[in-house]
Amino acid sequence: MRWMVxxxxxxxxxxxxxxxxxxxxxVMAVDRLEVDITNQASVExxxxxxxxxxxxxxxxxxxxxxxxxxxxxxxxxxxxxxxARRCKKIGARFVHISTDYVFDGSNSSPYSEDGPVNxxxxxxxxxxxxxxxxxxxxxxYIIVRTAWLYGAHGRCxxxxxxxxxxxxxxxxxxxxxVGQPTWTADLADLILRLVVAEVPxxxxxxxxxxxxxxxxxxxxxxxxxxxxxxxxxxxxxxxxNRPAPRPSFSVxxxxxxxxxxxxxxxxWLERWNEAADSVLAEY
Length: 283
Ligand SMILES: NC(=O)c1ccc[n+]([C@@H]2O[C@H](COP(=O)([O-])OP(=O)(O)OC[C@H]3O[C@@H](n4cnc5c(N)ncnc54)[C@H](OP(=O)(O)O)[C@@H]3O)[C@@H](O)[C@H]2O)c1
Known about the structure:
Layout: E1 2-6, H1 11-22, E2 26-30, H2 40-46, E3 52-55, H3 62-67, H4 69-90, E4 93-99, H5 122-137, E5 141-146, E6 149-150, H6 157-167, E7 171-174, E8 178-179, E9 182-183, H7 184-196, E10 202-205, E11 212-213, H8 214-224, E12 232-235, H9 255-259, H10 268-279
Parallel strand pairs: 1-2, 1-3, 3-4, 4-5, 5-10, 6-9, 7-12
Antiparallel strand pairs: 8-11
Helix pairs in contact: 1-7, 4-5, 6-8, 8-10
This protein binds NADP nicotinamide-adenine-dinucleotide phosphate.
Residues 7, 9-13, 31-32, 35-38, 56-58, 60, 75, 79, 97, 99, 127, 146-149, 154 line the site of NADP nicotinamide-adenine-dinucleotide phosphate (NAP).
């Protein structure tokens, strides 16, 4: 199977390319230098002779998107439209990555794949538009919503907390945002399994199982570093004045995976314990 990974140098892209190469697939890895997804001609010239295109390119700066929504929309909505149209034209399956930020976070039970979206900020609005652009432009697609990603090859929450813990004796971390920390290597594996299983076109949730909050996750990170988890104190989101709203509840359900016979990613803490050494090797 011939794959193209677009956004291959990002945190998820790096792990996805490794996973596909290790599994023996033929992979073309491209990033902004080879293809600018906001440019239709660039997409048309670059993407051909592939069976599967995975779009992991995105405008991911959540706070900056509040001021630069047009730029974010170009990458997160217009880009996927170009890619979906190109995939339809060349007969390739299109895998597109989306986010929990398409939901407003007001639920108290896990979000279902087919529930209504209601983004609270600019980043979520542009990603929701990207999902619709995919659905409207090809009928051979897999949208995978993920959340709370961490990985060895990018800036992420565990690395930030590890660096802060070297500088401060205590850390104050919010308890009132709940979600599912998800390892990019696990998500890469799920993407591969979805494509190999030839699942029906649709929207799937690619997050770890279970749930936690940032405070408890930070305690697990400190434990992995051999530090005292009691150095992590509780606070609430109200203590931080950030430009973009964060969903307070980001737990995604996995019913669609179960329905098509694809095993969801395991429990967040078990997966973190597996991931910690490689993710915290450099921070
Ligand atoms: N990180 C998270 O916690 C999280 C949570 C939920 C969902 N997601 C989604 O997961 C996916 C992967 O996220 P990530 O954290 O791996 O992202 P990332 O590390 O920010 O990587 C994104 C990649 O896309 C490239 N890119 C940006 N604009 C482009 C363009 N116009 N044309 C081509 N390439 C472009 C970037 O290149 P430059 O570096 O040159 O800009 C970068 O290599 C995204 O769809 C994101 O929305 C992430």
